[in-house]
Amino acid sequence: MKLLVVEDEAKLGAYLRKGLGEQGFVVDVARDGIDGRHLALEGEYDLIVLDAMLPGIDGFAVLSAIRQAKNTPVLMLTARDAVEDRVRGLRAGADDYMAKPFAFSELVARVDALLRRGGGARTEKSLFRVADLEVDLIKRRAVRGGRRLDLTAKEFALLALLVRRGGEILSRTVLAEQVWDMNFDSDTNVVEVAVRRLRSKLDDPFETKLLHTARGMGYVLELRE
Fold this sequence. Notes:
The chain is an alpha/beta fold. It has helices at about 10-20, 35-40, 60-70, 85-90, 105-115, 155-165, 170-180, 190-200; strands spanning about 1-5, 25-30, 45-50, 75-80, 95-100, 125-130, 135, 140-145, 145-150, 210-215, 220.
């Protein structure tokens, strides 16, 4: 699942990217209203976390632009906690509203609730099946042969990307960019290590293998005869 965080406080933006990333989300961060509006309108996101007080244009203007074009769920996260501000945000089209300071666990719970509610524009599949593997992107749960797989956040993010693009060979560069939000460095083996750990849980206990290596190209998740 891909989220956009529009937050001008650098430390908070980095904290949200790291924390939500550890929950299995792919997160983009915009530092001002202009960039936030551009990403929100041009990108495809499952949910947007939007601050109200932003440089450039404020969050309410960003929200208005989003609502003119999309129904992407929006959670407003702001220091403004007056009733009139909450009412303004909700009337402008926000799906939920949280005031700073906040508990990260509550933020995650609200994000999950909004994703389960399924905003009108979110038509992407959330449940995937390959052979006896079932991956639920919203519940962030993977089950194979009736057995739940005990995956870390990064392992699940890797599996989610592979299953969403099932049958397609994904290069190490693509995996590094999409899962770790990093440029691929040929001197690092982070992708190989993560694939090896995922394979030990996904394939090793089962006779039929689903995660395959395409030598010199990357990795693919598919059922082969």
